[in-house]
Description:
Elements: H1 9-24, H2 35-43, E1 46-47, E2 50-51, H3 54-82
Antiparallel strand pairs: 1-2
Amino acid sequence: HGRIGIYTPAERGAIIARFNQKRQRRVWNKKIRYNCRKSLADRRLRVKGRFVKRSEQEQLAKELQARVEQVVETDSYNKEANGKEGADEDMPDVSDPEAGFVPTEDQPFRRLRRHTIT
């Protein structure tokens, strides 16, 4: 019989050679086709790589600030209730508003790292 699938060995060799030739011609570099679109995209406001409107960005900033304030209030309440002032001093990233900690319903007490490597 001598066939591999529906192809003869010679046909299969020709198909694989064509595939390899096309594979060698692949271009993986990004080419900018329209410089005007690139400059517009560079000027637009982004959050996590996605385009956002200025009003949306302001709203996201307000929500983040409100969450941070809520965390700080909750933290100060817990310290007063527990009477432990320095209990969590070794983990400053949770209560630090600069660290960007935002509690969610599924991860209300997420701590990214226990110790800071300096």
